[in-house]
Amino acid sequence: MEPIPLPAPIHYEVALRLLEQQTTFALSQRQHQRELAHELIITLRKALSQQKRLEESCAQAGLAIDYRWSLNPAQTVHPAQTATESLKQE
User: Fold this and answer.
1) Residues near 76 by Cβ (< 8 Å), separated by ≥ 6?
2) Which distant-in-sequence residues (6+ apart) come within 8 Å of 69 by Cβ?
3) Global pTM?
């Protein structure tokens, strides 16, 4: 069976750091927009948590995971490969 394609976890990390460190700061004087950004942060954290649950379920079922950096299947991250090594390939 083919490995299950999933977004590389770094996708969540980049979005969360940007929203937490830069977007929220930029919206510090705009309460409504800052609240919307906070809701987005919560949603992304939930998505990451759900992906981790899916990964655990796949592991228990003996299914391999193929972490994807893009929609292009050629850009994958293998478990032994670090994020830095993968970025060097691009």
Assistant:
1) 66, 67, 68, 69
2) 8, 10, 11, 75, 76, 77, 86, 90
3) 0.71
What is the number of structural domains in the chain?
1
CA-to-CA separations, 31 to 24, 39, 41, in angstroms, rounded: 10, 12, 15
Angle at 66 between CA 85 and CA 64, to 5 degrees: 125
Q: With contact defined as beta carbons under 8 Å apart, do 35 and 23 qualify?
A: no
Per-residue model confidence as pLDDT tens digits over 4-46: 999 998 889 999 999 999 999 999 999 999 999 999 999 999 9
**First-to-last CA distance in the chain?**
27
Integer Cα distance of 13 and 44 in angstroms: 9
Q: Name the residue range of residue 71's domain.
A: 4-89
